[in-house]
């Protein structure tokens, strides 16, 4: 079974693309979603979050998001520490999950896949790209964030040019290209690779 990563900047359309792969019967592991679960469940992450954010990190067993966000706002470097803590645990969870799947290939969807060096453990990587101004407009519309808030998040993600160097396929998910034919083309290429 091949392990395929799908990555792209905030608002690029990763999740939308992965839903199309799912409709083709391909299992998708949504790393950001699973990370949110693991932070509250996995002993290494619970302990690590307490160390980074203090006893207030959790309230009634749930992550105290406003406390964590406030601390990160005052010390943005904490994001790097959070990533270093969370990525290996999520990666291991992904591998355990993939062993339970029965498909020619599985997908791990993650916004910061390459930044954490996780690409080395994957067979192929797909970049989902869209121009920065399009992505900002999408996230502002989708989440009601301000443009500054989106730009702040982007600061911790590599730009597409840098990501492209590590990717085997690219899906252009701007407002001018149809995405379904692009997904189908890659899907059949991956099936061929798996078949060899
Ligand atoms: P994030 O990293 O913030 O989770 P994402 O990369 O997963 O974002 P999506 O949630 O799939 O991106 O898409 C962001 C927004 O853009 C959504 O509102 C979605 O409906 C819209 N969108 C996604 N792809 C396209 C497209 N090709 N054309 C127009 N709108 C799109």
Automatic annotation (TrEMBL):
Q: Which reaction does it catalyse?
A: 3'-dephospho-CoA + ATP = ADP + CoA + H(+)
Alphabetized CDD domains for the sequence: DPCK
Pathway the protein acts in: Cofactor biosynthesis; coenzyme A biosynthesis; CoA from (R)-pantothenate: step 5/5
- What Pfam families does this protein's entry cite? CoaE (PF01121)
Residues binding ATP are: 11-16
Q: Which UniProt keywords apply?
A: ATP-binding, Coenzyme A biosynthesis, Cytoplasm, Kinase, Nucleotide-binding, Transferase
Give the Enzyme Commission number.
Answer: 2.7.1.24
Q: Which residues cross the membrane?
A: none
Q: Would you tell me the protein name for this molecule?
A: Dephospho-CoA kinase
């Amino acid at each position: 079974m091949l392990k395929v990563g799908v990555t792209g900047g905030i608002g690029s359309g990763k999740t939308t693309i992965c839903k199309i792969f799912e409709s083709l019967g391909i299992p998708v592991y949504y790393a950001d979603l699973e990370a949110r679960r693991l932070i509250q469940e996995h002993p290494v992450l619970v302990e690590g979050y307490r160390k980074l954010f203090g006893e207030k990190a959790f309230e009634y067993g749930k992550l105290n998001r406003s406390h964590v966000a406030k601390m990160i706002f005052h010390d943005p470097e904490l994001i790097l520490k959070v990533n270093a803590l969370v990525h290996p645990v999520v990666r291991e969870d992904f591998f355990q999950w993939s062993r339970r799947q029965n498909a020619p290939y599985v997908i791990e969807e993650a916004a910061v896949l390459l930044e954490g060096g996780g690409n080395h453990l994957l067979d192929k990587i797909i970049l989902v790209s869209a121009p920065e101004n399009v992505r900002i407009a999408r996230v502002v519309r989708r989440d009601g964030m301000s443009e500054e808030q989106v730009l702040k998040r982007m600061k911790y993600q590599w730009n597409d040019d840098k990501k492209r160097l590590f990717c085997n396929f690219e899906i252009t998910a701007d407002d001018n290209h149809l995405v379904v034919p692009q997904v189908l083309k890659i899907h059949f290429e991956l099936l061929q690779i798996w078949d060899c």
